[in-house]
Write a structure and sequence with these properties.
304 residues, mainly alpha, 20 helices
Length: 304
């Protein structure tokens, strides 16, 4: 029992640390009490704590308890890379978590990735890839993911959607940050491909969205399907591929199939495209979840 409590305590201490969820005020003594009293047996339990439970702890008054609840709630907005680091996967430090989060934009993509997908990333070798894959095969970890998702933690990079909708990408007018946040938080979108399945009923269910604005958004999303391949490529958010380089690549590879089949030498041989960009592009296309995204965007009718 003591060993189990110590394990939970270590997990919690890591979860609240500065480079992870950065939950200020949740120090070692408070964590110890939470575990000893059975109030938390998993980091997900932090998001179910009540004011009454916190003030029952030694040395915790109402003022401090409220501060702690606010800090816990604030941690839900931490980026996906911090959540990944906080999961305490073996060999995955904060830098490796950032690298993985750049390639896999949410926890669903990483959970579905194969060892080959993961170890193919620059700086991530077979030992880390196996460790990550093994972690996701454990049923208790799958339960933890479900609970953290229900708690509202940011496992989806919302900037993916705002980038996709931006002026030089798909230029979806009206798809503002606040609307994106609601779409993500309510689970209506987990991929940019989901934008093309949105209904009028789903949009009007959002706060501040009436029928008129909802119809305008649906029209703007439909119009985005006619944007040229270079804009779609930029919208994919491939590392090092800005709007200018996306145009360069799209000129050389006039459709996504040709770019997906290109080798690193094929890509880096283009004027203005070096080895680092070529490696980044090639890596992106090796990830199975990205291949699924391409299929979905093609089915939605985008210019690929």
């Amino acid at each position: 029992m003591q060993l189990a409590g110590t394990t939970v305590q270590r997990a919690l201490t890591h979860w609240v640390s500065r480079d992870a969820l950065d939950i200020k005020g949740l120090g070692e003594k408070i964590v110890e009490q939470l575990v000893d009293q059975g109030l938390v047996t998993s980091v997900a339990d932090l998001y179910d704590l009540t004011l009454k439970q916190l003030v029952s702890l030694k040395g915790i008054g109402y003022k401090l308890a409220e501060k702690l609840l606010n800090a816990i709630a604030k941690s839900k907005t931490q980026p996906w890379s911090r959540v990944l680091y906080g999961l305490r996967i073996r060999h995955v430090g904060s830098d490796k978590a950032k690298t993985l989060a750049q390639k896999f934009r949410n926890i669903e993509q990483l959970a579905q990735a194969t060892i080959s997908d993961i170890e193919g990333i620059y700086g991530i070798g077979p030992k880390i890839a196996k460790s990550v894959r093994d972690w996701f095969q454990i049923s208790s970890n799958q339960t933890l993911i479900d609970r953290l998702r229900e708690a509202g933690l940011q496992s989806i990079e919302k900037r993916t959607f705002t980038h996709w909708a931006s002026r030089y990408a798909l230029d979806i007018k009206g798809l503002r940050k606040k609307i994106v946040e609601q779409l993500v938080d309510q689970g209506l979108v987990t991929s940019v491909a989901d934008l093309y399945n949105l209904t009028l009923e789903q949009l009007v269910s959002l706060n501040g969205i009436g029928h008129k604005l909802a119809q305008k958004l649906l029209n703007a999303i439909a119009i985005s399907k006619t944007q040229p391949w270079s804009r779609v490529l930029y919208g994919l958010g491939i590392r090092h591929v800005g709007s200018v380089r996306a145009k360069t690549l799209a000129k050389k590879f006039p459709n996504i199939e040709q770019l997906a089949q290109a080798t690193i030498p094929d890509i880096e041989g283009i004027y203005g495209i070096g080895s680092e960009i070529a490696q980044s592009v090639w890596d992106w296309f090796q990830i199975s979840s990205n291949q699924t995204l391409i299929d979905r965007l093609r089915e939605a009718g985008l210019q690929l």
